[in-house]
Design goal:
About 25% of the residues lie in helices and about 25% in strands. The strands form four sheets. Strands 3, 5, 6, 9, 10, 17 and 18 form a seven-stranded mixed beta sheet that branches. The protein has a six-stranded parallel beta sheet with strand order 13-12-11-14-15-16, with helices on both faces. It has two domains: about 1-150 and about 290-340, Medium-chain alcohol dehydrogenases, catalytic domain (Quinone Oxidoreductase, Chain A, domain 1, Alpha-Beta Complex); about 150-285, NAD(P)-binding Rossmann-like Domain (Rossmann fold). The chain is an alpha/beta fold. The protein starts with a strand and ends with a strand. The protein has helices at about 40-45, 95-100, 140-145, 150-160, 180-190, 200-210, 225-230, 245-255, 295-305, 320-330, and strands spanning about 1-5, 15, 30-35, 60, 65-70, 85, 110-115, 115, 125, 135, 170-175, 195-200, 215-220, 235-240, 255-265, 285, 310-315, 335-340. It is built from ten helices and 18 strands. α5 (about 180-190) links the parallel β11 (about 170-175) and β12. α7 packs parallel to α8 (about 245-255).
């Protein structure tokens, strides 16, 4: 079968031929119907060879949608032909965090398809356990695939600051791309907050407005002053950074006000530097990693109701290399999805 794999350190992904996998006891084989690309894949491919913690080669893809093709011995709870998406946080199932449903924070080390085991950029993939499958019914798999990360990650981050987002508040979203455009939709659905989107390029700014942002302007050092002007000097109550570089972390702090919350979600290998005299008083800065399976179920129901719509650009699996090149070059608005 065809698969898009990371095959050599420092190289770009390649479309290769590999053997079709078979499910072991308790496992499930999926025929992949869609697989979303993510900048986290780029993060993995930037890791140095020394200490690299994942298999090589590795099939990429941690936003899978598929149809149950075969059940391993002892696997129950789904049937052949069921349409599903895959919860990507595969924890040990035993530790304190997994027992609480937070496999994304597994204390013994979470793995994910495409981020530790072979993923969904292929015609078929094996899922380790039925518990990581979420039925989607008649949802379009191309749009449903990215619920698993592009929607789940901002959803958890927003839920963590929901108590702050009452009437009269302002939220800044830095980066209106694959995750950010879903965050804007979620903020509009779940809260009365005013949403200000920051990004680079008029196409991205227009895209943010299309998805519900009240204001959108260029993400540059002047953006913080514009936020202060729009909030009559107060600053934003919440800032969500979907880029995660030092420069965006600095901007996030500058946009926030006294008592505000800054949440860094992007894996841009940077962060926010704060101190008592270098940031607004009582500002809290946190990170947010992925989300819980229960939250993915909530998002699937929201998608069924038409409350979330992920913008996608599709590619056949034979164009997998081009899809990653387009994502790397910033040519994709929304989410790129491979359709085998």
């Amino acid at each position: 079968m065809k698969a898009v794999q990371y095959t050599a350190f420092g190289a770009r992904p390649q479309v290769v031929e590999v053997e079709k996998p078979s499910p072991g006891p308790g496992q499930v084989l999926l025929r992949i119907t869609a697989s979303g690309l993510c900048h986290s894949d780029e993060f993995v491919m930037m890791m140095p060879e020394e200490g690299y913690p994942m298999p090589m080669p590795m099939t990429l893809g941690h936003e899978p949608a598929g149809v149950v093709e075969q059940l391993g011995v002892g696997a129950t709870g789904v049937a052949v032909g069921d349409a599903v998406i895959v919860y990507g946080c595969w924890g040990c199932g035993v530790c304190e965090m997994c027992a609480d449903g937070s496999e994304n924070l597994c204390l013994t080390g979470m793995v994910s398809p495409g981020l530790g085991v072979h993923g969904a950029m292929a015609e078929y993939m094996v899922v380790d356990s039925v518990r990581h499958l979420v039925p989607i019914g008649d949802l379009d798999p191309v749009r449903a695939a990215s619920l698993t990360d592009a929607a789940l990650t901002p959803y958890q981050a927003i839920k963590g600051v929901l108590p702050k987002l009452v009437g009269g508040t302002t939220t800044v979203v830095i980066g209106a791309g694959g995750l950010g455009h879903v965050a804007i939709q979620l903020l509009r659905e779940l809260t009365p907050t005013r949403v200000i989107a920051l990004d680079i390029g008029q196409e991205k700014l227009d895209f943010a407005i299309e998805n519900g942002a009240h204001e959108a302007f260029t993400s540059d050092p002047a953006a913080a002053e514009k936020v202060k002007q729009l909030t009559r000097g107060r600053g934003a109550h919440v800032v969500l950074d979907f880029v995660g570089m030092d420069v965006t972390g600095e901007l996030a702090v500058a946009c926030g006000g006294v008592g505000s919350s800054v949440v860094i979600i992007g894996a841009g290998m940077g962060g926010a530097k704060i101190g008592l005299t270098s940031a607004p008083y009582n500002m809290s800065v946190s990170t947010s990693l992925w989300g819980r399976r229960k939250e993915l179920l909530e998002l699937v129901e929201m998608a069924h109701r038409g409350q979330i719509r992920i913008r996608t650009t599709t590619y056949p699996i034979t164009d997998g290399e081009q899809a990653y090149d387009d994502m790397h070059a910033g040519r994709i608005v929304g989410r790129a999805v491979i359709v085998p």
